[in-house]
Amino acid sequence: MREVFHLQEEYLLSIKDVCKSFSGVKVLKNVCLNIKAGTIHSLMGENGAGKSTLMKCLFGIYKQDEGAFYFKGEPFNFTDPKHALENGVSMVHQELNQVTKRTITDNIWLGRYPTKGFFVDEKKMHGDTMSLFKRLNIHLDPKTRLDQLSVSQRQMVEIAKAVSYDARIIVLDEPTSSLTSHEVEMLFAIMRRLRDEGVGIVYISHKMEEIFQVSDEVTILRDGSYIGTEDIKDLTMEKIVNMMVGRDLDDRFPPKDNEPSDVHMSVKNLSTRYSPIIHDVNFELRRGEILGVAGLVGAGRTEMLEAIFGARTLKSGEIYIDGKKIDNSTPHKAINNKFALLTEERRETGLYPIADITFNSCISNIQAYKNKIGFLDDKKMKEDTDIQIKNMRIKTPNRREKIRSLSGGNQQKVIIGRWLLTNPDILLLDEPTRGIDVGAKYEIYQLIINLAKTGKSIIVVSSEMPELLGITNRIMVMSNGYVSGTVNTDETTQREIFNLSTKYLNNNREAEV
Amino acid sequence: MISLENTIQRKFMGKSKENWKDLIVNNAIYIVIFSIILFIVISEPSFVSLAVFKNILTQSSVRLILAFGVGGIIILQGTDLSLGRMVGFAAVISGSLLQRPDYANRFYPHMDQLPLIVPLLAAIAVCSFFSAVNGFVVAQFKIHPFLATMGMMITLYGILSIYFASGAPGPQPIGGFDDRYTELVIGSTLGIPNIVIIAAIISFFIWVLWNKTTFGKNMYAVGGNPEAAKVSGVNVMTTFLLVYILAGVMYGIGGFLEAARIGSANNGTGTGYELDAIAACVVGGISFSGGIGKVSGAIAGVLMFTIISYGMTFIGMDQYFQYIIKGIIIVAAVSLDTKKYLKKS
Ligand SMILES: Nc1ncnc2c1ncn2[C@@H]1O[C@H](COP(=O)(O)OP(=O)(O)OP(=O)(O)O)[C@@H](O)[C@H]1O
Ligand SMILES: [Mg+2]
Q1: Per-residue pLDDT, B17
Q2: Interval between CA A409 and ligand 2 midpoint (Å)
Q3: A153 touches chain B (CB under 8 A)
Q4: Cα(A395) to centroid of ligand 1, in Å?
Q5: Per residue in A208-254, pLDDT tens?
Q6: In CATH, B32-344 is 1.25.40
Q7: CATH 3.40.50.300 given to domain A11-245
Q8: Hey, what CATH class is A260-338+424-513 in?
């Protein structure tokens, strides 16, 4: 590992010996990080390693207990986010911090509305948004309210906002968690251009492919400690994983040894009434099968899961379980029919932020914890929660911790665990490993495969191609609301899936101009 | 590129597909209210008259001003139980400072006639101060606004009653108002009641503030997602203080007008007004979940409430029966409002 001998002036940003504790638990231990101007610097580490906390200290959301920050050798310390933004540091936060009831424009310029006398200069704001979007090749109407957008579109808006500050240092904390390859490419193009303009970029992601595609240097944290900084040229995936987890990880995917049997669920003519519309979806899911769903953003994958789960208004469609027609018109009925849906926007739709881990793990399955006289069996809830914490390797002092204080990835794990505890027959998983580190991903894949082996049937929507190829039996590809094909995972290629996912895009070509 | 298709789809298809059923669900509360109004008009056709119309506008004016005040606080995910006491305080201050010189039972027997603006400013200052305290407590100590303002409601009643009893004649209703004061509030200009003109001017002013200024946009942002506002560099504390102070200003003006409208003031003036104002906001679509609400909504909410209560009295409906209908409307409005957000469109 390379020693840090250089003078601090050489660096755009230099973080020295930062320590931070939350209620006595030390989550950052003398962390150092040096960012050169004009580089993309990836920050890596397992869930809970302290990446976001370090960046929040930089950005003035938290105050570090010890340590210092230097900008070109000059010490600085931001007291709040406003201070940071005004001094050339901007950040895309891991959790999408947006005012969803307001428009894109209102969100992008929030905190710095241009004024003309006493009034907000709407015209300038609109114009500036248009030119920003043009520069970044984003095609959205700035007047749209954010709750009309998909998560990935919202993430693009957030990225555009961070860029619009013309900052010298941009922190991107898992910006690609819900983007698909096309948008990731767009983001990388933006990042490379900013780098060439001399901006220093801190990039946090759990997607290995991206790290190698885009970074110049990589710094690795483990358990709140600085492990090392390396040039990307000197790194291999194995080496990064080793530095992150402190041991070798042999495979990224567990053996896929589930055996699909007879048809478990069939979906016929499923169409939704409101946009984004899915058209006439037909497919069969076999017992013990893992069916992947691929497609670009806006292909309607999430909508299809929600439609099956009764969370969308249907125009037509029937669902059969073992040949018998069932009624899934509301999520409640779907749950009673032993369906479970892990939503894409877990933080917003799945968390009880101020409740503890036990509550968040058991809430969806609370019926199962009733004892003979109708009270809840505390002991069983605690046991189950402890098992989840162990199985999913959730990083937390104990199960009484409020879920809000877990790292983003660990929050995800709790919610995944919650749905697994409901013991469903059919699991609908929307981006199940989003934001989860390599080690824990493996555990989750193993869990999914084990569930399939016990006769559960599983649908996995994912934007990560290797993941779909790694754990599914078949892949259904969606394009612009239609199913454009279904392929056997062992016989397909990335190329074929990509072609299928663009199949119905031409219908709307004229809209792109 | 793909995103554009998506937006276009969402925008246009979503609209054209909106069918009758949704139209009805989305506007159910208005349909119910208009049915009631229709019922009133059919049972008593003389309800449709200029005089009634004027009366309704006059009765709505103060309520509307108060609704604007608490409306901003509701947009910040809050509520304000101390509204009624603030109005009472403002009414007592205005009344005590604006009695006819020749009136026998004067609060301040030897005071000269004051310019009208002085008592108005005094009322505004007192309400703004106490409301700012509310805002500070809520923002700084993260106390739920329901509790913080409940404490303020009780405290204020004490302070108000002490002040009320401190006048020369002792704790007696304050009356005998200065003609200039009465004339300003209950007089008319070009046939339009002054109080309605005042409410209209304030509505415009609030509309500009909420929609066209940084203050207004920050208010919606902080109400919609305080965390997002904070990390975008909005000063959350300042926004809270400003919204609560604006509410105080509205209460001050409301109390000033209310004393003259009723013709007297005492320490019980304004009791329960908070519930009327909050109910009107909710019926008008200012959502308790924060970040949502329009000036036009507050106006619609207040007008509908006044029309219904006035109309029901007009056709001679039993007072207690009116309570039942109003209560049901509030709960229905809120449940339909929630339903709108639950179902993804
Ligand atoms: N506000 C808080 N209160 C208490 N503990 C916290 C708080 N924020 C973070 N932590 C703890 O600090 C540790 C580091 O969290 P952090 O969010 O920095 O991890 P991370 O590296 O960003 O992980 P991920 O990849 O999951 O986002 C975690 O163990 C978390 O539980
Ligand atoms: Mg993080």
Answers
A1: 45
A2: 7
A3: yes
A4: 9
A5: 888 999 999 999 998 889 998 989 888 888 888 888 887 777 778 88
A6: no
A7: yes
A8: alpha beta
